[in-house]
């Protein structure tokens, strides 16, 4: 990512448009950022892991699933907007030590508002149930009813931002383009929720049951798999192989079809051939996403000057290995330390990997700009 500017400046406000392509998904120049890796990324774990722990178990086992998972998921389109469209504005108006925290507070506030909107979409606005894991009869619990539109809005936002390269919105002022991208994603999410998703109303709740053709859990698992393909191609492999296609129309078309089609086909393989449940698919895919972000973002450039083909192969194998390690570790914690039921354990593993560890990584690298660890002279490089 590019430099967010000196303290007190607001880069997007002074720039008429963003670079043609998101820096995150552009091929890394040879040797860039490798001089301080993996030490810089490992130092980042000192912030990433505590934040992930708070998000994963801050409200208890099931409580974190039912309260924190929706809030974090609804926050993710805002994280993408601030990190990749606004380039950390408005935090860039403050000192570097306060920039990431200010943006995080803004994201938290926005997450509460968006979760309330999702709750109203699922049934009605019910403030008491926003932060209560067991609100009881007559309320609108946010999990799992609000998760389909939240997940759909996030995946569409990433699809527009990374796979679609923000085109044609990147021609606009970033402060305008970012909200438009999020608004488009939300419009698609609302339409999809109202027309496609099947929702079961928990007994005694005020959640509105819906008879769509796709169960919410199936849609959620498919969306997480699409997210896994997004992370592989546009974070771990930094846009390869699509970046090699010169014509934008062909490049974007191939990218969209490959990522969305890959997610759907992956779900069918894991569900029909391997017999995995949607909750287990979500958990495993979430571990892959977390692993991809740790290696491709937190430890960016850690392999040094390998040839591009060898680097991609090594990154893929390392991501798969780390994903397996995360899945085993988180499953053991869910079973032995938290004593969750098998279904709830899958839900928690997915939340801990995707909503906790992956989000904490994005917040540290893309929002906090690795504060307080990078040397000032290297803050311009990411």
Write down the domain tally. Answer: 1
Number of helices: 12
Rg computed from alpha carbons, rounded to a whole number of angstroms: 20 Å
Portion of residues in helices? Answer: 55-70%
Describe this structure in words.
Keywords: Membrane, Transmembrane, Transmembrane helix. There is one protein chain. By secondary structure, the chain is mainly α. It has one domain (about 10-370). About 65% of the residues lie in helices and about 0% in strands. The protein has a 3-stranded mixed beta sheet. The longest helix has 30 residues, at about 310-335. The chain is globular and about 60 Å long. Mean pLDDT is about 90; it is low at about 1-10 and about 375-380.
Features:
382 residues, mainly alpha, three-stranded mixed sheet, 12 helices, 3 strands, globular, disordered N terminus, disordered C terminus
